[in-house]
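Extended Data, panel c. Modelled sequence:
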Amino acid sequence: METADQVLKTHKETFPVTGMTCAACASSVETILQYTDGVKSAAVNFATNTVQVEYDETTSPEKLNEALTDIGYGLVISAKNVQESVQEEQEKKYQAVKRQTIGAALLTLPVFILGMFLMDWEPGKWISMGLALPVLFFFGRNFYIHAWKQARHGKANMDTLVALSTGIAFIFSVFNTVFPEFWHQRGIHPHVYFEAATVIIVFISFGKMLEEKAKSQTGTALKKLMGLQPKTLTRIEDGKDREIKIEEVQVGDRIRIKPGEKIPVDGKVLEGSSYLDESMISGEPVPVEKKSGDAVFAGTINQKGSLEIQAEKVGASTLLSQIIQRVQEAQGSKAPVQKLVDKIAGIFVPVVMGIAIVTFGIWMMYGGENAFSHALLAAVSVLVIACPCALGLATPTAIMVGVGKGAENNILIRDAESLELGHKVNAIILDKTGTITEGKPTVSSIQWAVGNVESSLRATEERGNLSDFEKILLALESKSEHPLAEAVVKYLKKEQVEAAGLDHFESITARGVKGEKEGKSYFAGNLKLLQENGISIPADLKDTAKTWTEQAQTVIWFADQNQALAILGIQDQIKPSSKSAISKLQKSGVEVYMLTGDNQQTASAVAKEVGVKEFQAEVMPSDKSEFVKKLQEKGKVVAMVGDGINDSEALAQADVSIAMGHGSDIAMDVAKITLITSDLEKIPQAFHLSHLTVNGIKQNLFWAFIYNLIGIPIAAGILYPINGFLLDPMIAGAAMAFSSVSVVMNSLRLKSRKL
């Protein structure tokens, strides 16, 4: 018998989340929702500030929002689609952080000048205090608010470190400014640390601003994918054309597609013939011929012909809508990565606080007549010297230099996580067209049957005689609507050929073209065109055509009314660097796979030439993303390299996504790394750059910790019983600054390294 729980209907929805500032926040939101009544599962994506929640009828979005509001977070429940809501929230957040950073920086500049160069000027301390107040508690208020939220749940993160160090430095400085005589009576000169507190706020705010800027741009790819679907279409009603909105179309409607228009729905051709650009699905640059009975897909582009189609799938069920949905799911399914520094901070903060308290206690017990002043100075020195600046700069400075180094080498890196993950990649998937190959069909071979044409050509092979036929061939292909004709036209024009004037021209569907010159007929097209017109085909041309076909070349025949005159091989050329780049990847232990929408024969020929052992042909966009998932399920760290809309789903799913620079805007928007030159040699370089950058991060964190390991005990007064040395908080502040400089200098070393 079914229980009540088993029959309750469940909903799965994605909501934008407000108030998250770090991976720890994302973890808190996820945990709270998972323990909310009625929730089956919750998965937060910190990168997009969204949460996907599966819940039953016993709860509602409003109740979920209430559960989060209690701890300072919230859900955006809007009538708008999730993507629009996310983009609005991210843009608002970015603008808010930007205003806070600029405001804090403007007020911090005079505080820094006063603190560093006019430290003994008494009025300067009061001015600094007045300027530091809004920097910390207005422009930097979120650090304290979020630190308090974390503390309420027994957690600590970078915000906790910032709030503690800046807050204590500020309070201590205020005390020293207002009550300097307290220290004068004890023979100690009081120092203030307003500049240290405010500079930390500005540095960390600037880092958050850059992070929010990157987040605010994450929806661009989906927006462009959505833009592939037309807003209106032409429906045929009672024999008349009527323009309607895309939302009004129904399954079974008869739709007219004019030249140059996008296909609005998935369906089949009823009447007409044309060529469609289906590169968004197949990735192949050559448009596909469509005639009665053939399937068409939403988002593909009609070329020159006119079509009447019947709608079979509309709205969310079209292939384009499914690609959009899968890209969203792939971006949202990635578990939030707990930042290394946040993990460290979670342990580091309580330890530092504990050391400061223990230091204060020991000094109070054994400090003699100046016990309190020594205890307070030592405790503050511990907190100041343990400031998170070096720790906070360890990762971003190395990433910043790494990204700059990449840009110098035509490798654009949009995402720090990809730069960190690159060196771990052990499986890479390459698209064929536009990635391994140039993505542009060109004439790769041409063979003239000079010995078999009319007698005037038997005596000589001079170009002057051949050029008459070349002029006729150019005239035929110039008038052809076939996509491959453009490759022939470009080739002949490059050879300085001028088109002849034709007396008559005719396009023959699915075969080629026919023209007349001085009473003689000429043909350009496929083999069937020649066979149907009873044209003689020389054995040598037939053998060559067979060889070219096996080499994945498309053969175009040129003939007069009696016999074949020439054949042209059309091929998407393999990039010069592809073979060596693939070899380097394989030698470094990376498994290389090739996926393509092209046919098996072409895929096999290309794979063999470049040395790829594992490949799949005739794959759909969803097949590519499924292939990525299968490799990930085997524990592989997967990189996907592509250049087309058809690759966007797999790019979004991959751990590291790389787009070729000449590719579609959507592929480049989804991908986190773009190769400007489209040179595959840049991929091994990108992985090596990742290795160098990660090493830099590890070195920075090592030095930040060594510095704390040495500095904190000295600040606590461990040397006092030995030589009477007690670290002044001002020296602690200078040491803190030096640690930050050392981290930056270490990061800059990457600039001189070779990729």
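The domain at 230-317 is CATH 2.70.150.10 (Calcium-transporting ATPase, cytoplasmic transduction domain A). This feature is highlighted in the accompanying rendering.
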